[in-house]
Amino acid sequence: MQPVPLAFLGQIYLREIHKTLPLLGWPREGSLAFFYDPAQPWGFDPTERGSSKILYLSDSEDLRPIPCPPNLKSHFSSPSRSLQFSCEWILPSKPEDHGCQSVDSTSEAYSDLLENLIDNGCSRPIHRLSGYPQEVQGQMELECQLVTHGIYCGGPEGYRDPRRAELEKGVSDWRLVMQFDSEEGSLGWMWGDLGRVYFWIRKQDLERGKFENAWSIVQCG
């Protein structure tokens, strides 16, 4: 398979993250650099491995900014921006999948609560590190589990695969690493039709710093 050229999305310094809010099970030092294929693979095909990447870089590495290659296509490059971290209250879209059986996630009251938690319904881009994703087309953990075990999930046949029953035991291991929202004006990011790209990892790989095993999915409306 030919290597896929990837666009650099951003770099997160974990020491700065832990100053805002310590994340259990995450490395406390170093940084994470996120890369993604500008062709925007959806993430339902096992052959798309290599179309996104998270690099873990230790603090001991000598990192220096370098200029973009002069022949780099425009969709591989985004303007430079700094980040400011803040904490937010979030809830899962389906709390029953996270051990909470006392909440009716289909109720209008719960839907209104989810909306109100997103900055009172503000339409700003929602970039998020860790926590629960702001989904566009439903939950992704099962898709991550099946696809990373070689099952094509671009149609319903993948979810009827006989291996699903056994693989479902590992669905709860998947954790959101980073969610990048569309931000067409300032960054030129458009994931599908105003969608989002999500980077996922198994908790066991997260705790071992095995970010090369991460998987990405795009969802849009």
In short:
With 221 residues, the protein is α+β, with helices and mostly antiparallel strands. The protein has helices at residues 14-20, 108-117, 141-147, 156-159, 164-167, 203-208; strands at residues 7-13, 31-36, 52-57, 128-129, 174-181, 196-202, 215-219. It has 6 helices and 7 strands; from the N terminus they run E-H-E-E-H-E-H-H-H-E-E-H-E.
Structure description:
There is one protein chain. The chain is an alpha+beta fold. It has a domain of 147 residues. The chain is built from 6 helices and 7 strands; from the N terminus they run βαββαβαααββαβ. The protein is globular and about 55 Å long. The mean pLDDT is 88.
Round the mean pLDDT to the nearest integer and report it.
88
Low-confidence runs (pLDDT<50, min 5 residues)? Answer: none
From the helix content, strand content and strand pairing, which structural class follows?
A: alpha+beta
Distance between the termini: 31 Å
- Strand percentage lies at 15-25%
- The beta-strand count equals 7
Query: Helix coverage percent of residues?
Result: 10-25%
**Radius of gyration using CA atoms only:** 18 Å
Largest sheet: 4 strands, antiparallel
The coarse overall form would be globular
Identify the strand order in the major beta sheet. Answer: 4-5-6-7
Topology pattern, helix = H, strand = E: EHEEHEHHHEEHE
Number of helices in the DSSP assignment: 6
